[in-house]
């Protein structure tokens, strides 16, 4: 028995070791892939910078010659006098050598920031997180707006971040830490806010060293560059009017936002001081609380966000602090945890036009989205404390049981699981907006050669004639001769393309969340597949075919003699007609409504929608009939892929066993129900 036990124990131990080895191998492979991706992105960024001629550095501004004249004669150098003094020796290098050296030093500094920040995550850190945090963070920084702008010579925004992180996480002793923090503040004066953070967290020697180093560095710059120091601190109020207009979109600070809102003069200054004081007070209190809670990296990120917001000028290359705020955990549910990091990554990597539509009402938010992200991190986002019961174990996500109806050799992604709970609304809106914006950009970039598109249109028309379904011209002219019918189809074509799909998604999100995920995935996949058609088969719609006698009832006459083909072609690719997503989306709506509507008249209305839509796209001369066939094909492919990956819409959901009753017969209750009814 003892031998059997020992053998069993040895076998179990070997199994554990084998499992650990397998997990370690997977983590190692993941690290290699992520570091490789970070290296590729770094080389890409280096190539972008090195292609810029030296005389166009700093967005068309050459690094100023610090050997003669003033740093601020042009009004375009934004660094502090101490930064100018540090940059002075660089003017002795050749332009090309300086460009190469500066680019690679900046990118190496970004990698160092990622490594140090990953080491600063609060304990305990899961092994997977600890191993993958650094390459993931470096990868995100490489594609972020601050790093893309900071890589150009003359921008020192990455160096202060690195100095602060080294001071607080890697340098032993308070005095050296204070010296590094003071040097960072001398390069970017708003970072002097780290001195009160150090003081309030008990590191008073470090706080005093920070103030002393900042004062000494500023005094040295004053002695070395007295005129420039006076210009920076007095004439331009700590660089407020340097580097561009303070009310420009590049200035993502409270002061810049107030100027963009049209405020000016003493009233704007007073309001700015009040708001800056309130943000500094709230942000520093939160930072101190997180530092005492053991979340020092989050405290550093919050303080950096405060510094950017309250500084008179917070240029985009100084906003790397916001990206570090992904270290905080937000949300009690596991499904809510990705919301904050995904929102930060989207804000920090994508243009604001992709995040919000070009609407006048949204302009204040769109123009200040980076500032709002910094303010949210500093003052509003409810980061969890480590003592929270949800810190380690958030509320688990509800999943459906694997569908038995899937083919045995499928799905392609064996780990795919159907989520039954409602997705986070903010994250959903962000992803939908970004996804549609990317779709619009890709569609607009698809080939739009007029000759190719018209040749393909003749091919489609010939195929329809061979099949006896070339009804477009007859239907179009009949509608043109019937005024009320023309108005009806014009209204239907222009009004319901977005309204009905969005309304249906909103209703499913609210009433049937699991079915919402199923429907949304099928629509997204169908739209993605349609992009291949736009690229591979550019097609002129009937209204853009000269000599065939079609009338564009919606857009009016299109001037094909004009190279731009009228105003509509400036908005989108007019030759992205095959497949017709106008019909495809309406067919998707019809299928979803017929599948899930509880009443017969609702199913009938759902079935009529694609029928009326196909009449509208043909009657208004916006599509060929075969375009609708293409739209039906991509929608069918979208539903088929969802079925392959996650099984049928209806899932078997197990109900927990209850105490036996005569009605139940003591058997475990099982119900077959739509996943969205859970």
List the helices and strands and how they pair.
Blueprint (H helix, E strand, L loop, with lengths): L1 H49 L6 H4 L20 H7 L7 H25 L7 H16 L2 H6 L7 H12 L4 H14 L6 H7 L3 H21 L1 H10 L18 H7 L4 H28 L3 H15 L9 H5 L14 H11 L2 H4 L7 H5 L1 H12 L44 H21 L4 H18 L4 H9 L2 H29 L1 H24 L44 H16 L3 H20 L5 H22 L3 E5 L15 E5 L4
Antiparallel strand pairs: 1-2
Helix pairs in contact: 1-4, 1-5, 3-10, 4-5, 4-7, 7-8, 8-10, 9-10, 10-11, 12-13, 13-14, 13-19, 14-19, 16-20, 23-24, 23-25, 23-26, 24-25, 24-27, 25-26, 25-27
Calculate the mean pLDDT score and round it.
81
State the end-to-end distance: 50 Å
- The gross shape turns out to be globular
Number of strands: 2
H-E string:
HHHHHHHHHHHHHHHHHHHHHHHHHHHEE
Counting structural domains, the number is 2
Unreliable parts: 1-19, 58-63, 563-570, 653-678
Classify the secondary structure makeup into a structural class: mainly alpha
The helix fraction, in percent, is: 55-70%
- Relative strand content: under 5%
Q: Which strands sit side by side, in order, in the main sheet?
A: 1-2
How would a textbook summarize the main sheet? Answer: 2 strands, antiparallel
Helix run count: 27
Radius of gyration: 31 Å
């Amino acid at each position: 028995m003892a031998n059997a036990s020992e053998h069993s124990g040895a076998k179990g131990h070997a199994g554990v070791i084998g499992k650990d080895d397998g997990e370690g191998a997977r983590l190692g492979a993941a690290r290699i892939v992520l570091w490789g991706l970070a290296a590729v992105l770094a080389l890409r960024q280096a190539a972008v910078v090195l292609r810029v001629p030296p005389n166009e550095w700093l967005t068309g501004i050459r690094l100023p010659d610090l050997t003669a004249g003033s740093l601020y004669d042009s009004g375009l150098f934004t660094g502090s006098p101490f930064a100018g003094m540090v940059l002075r020796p660089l003017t002795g290098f050749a332009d090309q050598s300086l460009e190469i050296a500066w680019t690679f030093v900046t990118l190496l500094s970004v990698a160092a920031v990622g490594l140090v920040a990953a080491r600063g995550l609060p304990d305990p850190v899961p092994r997977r997180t600890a191993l993958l945090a650094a390459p993931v963070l470096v990868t995100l920084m490489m594609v972020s707006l601050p790093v893309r702008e900071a890589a150009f010579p003359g921008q020192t925004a990455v160096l202060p971040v690195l100095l602060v992180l080294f001071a607080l996480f890697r340098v032993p002793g308070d005095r050296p830490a204070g010296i590094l923090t003071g040097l960072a503040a001398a390069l970017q004066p708003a970072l002097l806010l780290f001195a009160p953070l150090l003081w309030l967290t008990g590191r008073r020697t470090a706080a005093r060293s920070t103030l002393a180093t900042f004062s000494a560095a500023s005094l040295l710059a004053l002695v070395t560059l007295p005129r420039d120091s006076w210009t920076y601190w007095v004439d331009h109020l700590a660089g407020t009017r340097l580097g561009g207009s303070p009310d420009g979109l590049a200035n993502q600070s409270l002061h810049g936002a107030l100027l963009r809102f049209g405020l000016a003069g003493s009233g704007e200054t007073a309001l700015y001081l009040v708001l800056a004081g309130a943000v500094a007070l709230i942000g520093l209190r939160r930072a101190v609380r997180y530092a005492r809670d053991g979340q020092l990296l989050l405290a550093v990120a919050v303080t950096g966000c405060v510094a950017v917001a309250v500084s008179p000028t917070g240029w985009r290359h100084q906003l790397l602090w916001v990206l570090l705020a992904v270290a905080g955990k937000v949300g009690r549910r596991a499904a809510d945890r990705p919301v904050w990091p995904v929102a930060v990554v989207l804000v920090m990597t994508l243009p604001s036009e992709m995040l919000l539509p070009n609407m006048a009402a949204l302009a204040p938010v769109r123009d200040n989205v980076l500032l709002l992200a910094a303010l949210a991190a500093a003052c509003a986002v409810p980061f969890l404390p480590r003592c929270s019961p949800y810190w380690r174990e958030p509320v688990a996500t509800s999943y459906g049981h694997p569908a038995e109806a899937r083919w045995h050799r499928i799905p392609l992604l064996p780990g795919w699981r159907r989520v039954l709970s409602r997705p986070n609304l903010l994250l959903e809106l962000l992803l939908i907006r970004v996804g549609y914006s990317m779709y619009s950009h890709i569609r607009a970039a698809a080939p739009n050669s007029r000759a190719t598109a018209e040749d393909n249109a003749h091919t489609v028309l010939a195929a329809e004639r061979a099949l006896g379904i070339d009804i477009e011209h007859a239907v179009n002219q009949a509608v043109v001769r019937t005024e009320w019918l023309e108005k009806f189809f014009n209204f239907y074509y222009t009004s319901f393309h977005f309204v009905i799909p969005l309304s249906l998604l909103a209703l499913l999100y609210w009433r049937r969340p699991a079915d919402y995920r199923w429907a949304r995935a099928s629509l997204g996949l169908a739209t993605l597949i349609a992009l291949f058609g736009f690229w591979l088969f550019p097609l002129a719609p009937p209204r853009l075919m000269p000599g065939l006698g079609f009338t564009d009832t919606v857009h009016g006459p299109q001037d094909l003699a004009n190279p731009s083909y009228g105003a509509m072609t400036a908005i989108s690719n007019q030759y992205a007609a095959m497949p017709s997503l106008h019909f495809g989306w309406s067919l998707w709506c019809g299928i979803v409504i017929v599948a899930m509507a509880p009443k017969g008249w609702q199913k009938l209305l759902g079935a009529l929608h694609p029928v009326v839509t196909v009449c509208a796209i043909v009657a208004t001369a916006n599509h060929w009939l075969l375009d609708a066939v293409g739209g039906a094909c991509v929608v069918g492919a979208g539903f088929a892929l969802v079925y392959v990956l996650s099984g049928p819409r209806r899932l078997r959901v197990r109900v927990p066993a209850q105490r036996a009753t005569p009605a139940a017969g003591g058997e475990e209750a099982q119900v077959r129900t739509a996943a969205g009814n859970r």
